[in-house]
Design a protein that fits this description.
Length: 400
C-alpha cells in the first residue's frame, strides 16, 4: 500500500492506536458472556434468550465483514477506519441505552458490523507501514489488542457490570471506541492504495475450494469453544460453585490461555500449518469433553478453560495462515472473512448451547455440543488438507 516504511516512532504510535480499537472489539465481543445473568434479569428474559445478543453481534460481523470490505475497497484506508470505529462506538452506545431485549439485540447486530472490516483493514494498514520482512509482526501487534482484551478488558468490564450494572460495561466500550477514533485520526498516517483488486476479483478469490473449506472448518470447529464460553458465568456459578465476584478472574484465566496459545501457535504453525490446525481441533474436543465431565469441580473447570483458550489460539492462527497462503491476492477481504468465520462460530455455538440449556439438559450440555462441533470442524479440515495434497500431486504428475 504505502511506498516506503515510516519512521519507527510513527509506526509504534499508529500500531498502538489501531490496537486500542482491537482491544475495544475484544472487550465488547466477550464481555457480554460474563454479563448474561445481569442482562437477563434486567430485561426480564432467560439466560439463553439473553445469549441471543451474542449471536446477533456475531451475525453483524458475518454480514459486515465481506459487505463493508468489498464496498469500500477503494476508499481511503484511514477514513474507512475512522468510519468503522465511529459506527462501533454508536452501536455500543445504543446497546447501553437499549430499553428492551429486541432493541438490545438490534444494537448488538450494528455493533458487530464494523468488527471484521476494522480488524482486517487495520492489520493490512499496520503491515503497510513497515518493510516486508516485518509485516507479520506488525499485524500480530494490532491483533495483540484482542488478546489483552481477554486478559484485562473483559474481566474489568465484567467487574464493572457486577458493581454498577451491565450497561456500564457498554459505556466503557463506547468510550474506547471514541478514544480509538481520536487516536487513529492523530496517529495513523494516510496510506496509498496500490494494486487493490476489484470487488469481483476479491470475491472470485474467496470462491476457491480451499478458502471455502477453511472458512467452514473455522465456522463449525471454533463454535465448540463459544458453546461453552457464552454461558461460562452461569455454568461456573451454578455448577462449579464459583462466587460471582470471582468470575472476572475466571475470565482472565481464559485470556491467559489465549495468550499462551498465541505464543505456542507461532512456532507450531511455522513448522506445519496443517498439523497445527488438526492438533488444535483435537485438543479443543478433548478439553471440552473434560470440561463437560468435571464442571462440578471448580479447579478442573478453570484449568480446562485455560486449555480451551490455548486450543482456540492454535485453531485461529493455523486457519488464518491457511487463508493468507491461499488468498494472497485478496488480503483485506480474506482477513475480514476470517473474523467473520469465527463469529459465525460464535453465533452457532451460542445458539446451539442455548437450545440444549432451554431443553432442560443443564449447563454441562453445551460442552458436549462443543465436542461435536469440534469433531465436525476437524473432519472438514482433514478433507481440505486431503484435497489440497491431491491437487499438488496432480500438478506434479502433469509437470513430470
Amino acid at each position: 500500500m504505502s511506498d516506503a516504511p515510516v519512521s519507527r516512532r510513527v509506526y509504534k504510535f499508529a500500531v498502538f492506536a489501531l490496537a486500542i480499537g482491537a482491544f475495544a472489539i475484544g472487550v465488547t465481543e466477550f464481555a457480554t458472556m460474563g454479563l448474561l445473568p445481569h442482562i437477563a434479569r434486567e430485561l426480564g428474559i432467560t439466560v439463553p434468550q439473553a445469549g441471543h445478543a451474542v449471536s446477533f453481534y456475531a451475525i453483524g460481523v458475518v454480514v459486515g465483514a465481506p459487505l463493508i470490505t468489498t464496498i469500500a475497497a477503494h476508499m481511503d484506508r484511514k477514513l474507512l477506519l475512522l468510519c468503522l470505529m465511529g459506527l462501533f462506538a454508536l452501536g455500543n452506545l445504543a446497546s447501553m441505552l437499549a430499553p428492551d431485549a429486541t432493541l438490545f439485540n438490534i444494537a448488538r447486530f450494528f455493533s458487530g458490523l464494523p468488527h471484521g472490516a476494522y480488524l482486517g483493514v487495520g492489520a493490512i494498514v499496520a503491515s503497510s507501514l513497515v518493510a516486508p520482512h516485518r509485516r507479520g509482526r506488525a499485524m500480530a501487534r494490532v491483533m495483540l489488542g484482542l488478546t489483552i482484551a481477554n486478559i484485562v478488558g473483559v474481566p474489568i468490564a465484567t467487574a464493572l457490570g457486577n458493581m454498577f450494572g451491565w450497561r456500564s460495561a457498554y459505556a466503557l466500550v463506547a468510550a474506547l471506541g471514541v478514544l480509538t477514533v481520536i487516536m487513529v485520526a492523530v496517529a495513523v498516517p494516510k496510506v496509498k492504495l496500490a494494486g487493490v483488486p476489484s470487488a469481483r476479483g476479491e470475491m472470485k478469490a474467496l470462491g476457491r475450494q480451499q478458502i471455502i473449506l477453511t472458512l467452514v472448518a473455522g465456522s463449525v470447529g471454533f463454535g465448540g469453544m463459544f458453546a461453552v464460553y457464552t454461558y461460562v458465568t452461569p455454568t461456573m456459578t451454578d455448577v462449579a460453585g464459583v462466587p460471582q465476584v470471582a468470575i472476572p478472574w475466571v475470565l482472565a484465566v481464559y485470556g491467559l490461555g489465549m495468550t499462551a496459545g498465541s505464543l505456542i501457535a507461532g512456532p507450531l504453525v511455522d513448522k506445519s500449518i496443517e498439523r497445527s490446525g488438526i492438533g488444535g481441533m483435537i485438543l479443543s474436543a478433548i478439553v471440552l469433553a473434560a470440561f463437560g465431565a468435571f464442571t462440578h469441580i471448580a479447579a478442573i473447570a478453570i484449568i480446562a478453560l485455560f486449555l480451551i483458550g490455548i486450543a482456540g489460539s492454535m485453531i485461529t492462527t493455523a486457519l488464518q495462515m491457511r487463508l493468507l497462503r491461499d488468498s494472497h491476492d485478496a488480503p483485506s477481504l480474506s482477513a475480514a472473512m476470517n473474523h467473520a468465520a469465527f463469529n459465525l462460530a460464535n453465533a452457532l455455538g451460542a445458539w446451539l448451547g442455548g437450545i440444549v440449556i432451554t431443553a432442560g439438559l443443564g449447563y454441562r450440555a453445551p460442552a458436549w455440543v462443543g465436542v461435536g462441533l469440534c469433531l465436525l470442524g476437524l473432519i472438514v479440515l482433514i478433507i481440505a488438507i486431503a484435497l489440497r495434497r491431491g491437487d499438488a500431486s496432480n500438478r506434479s504428475t502433469v509437470e513430470v
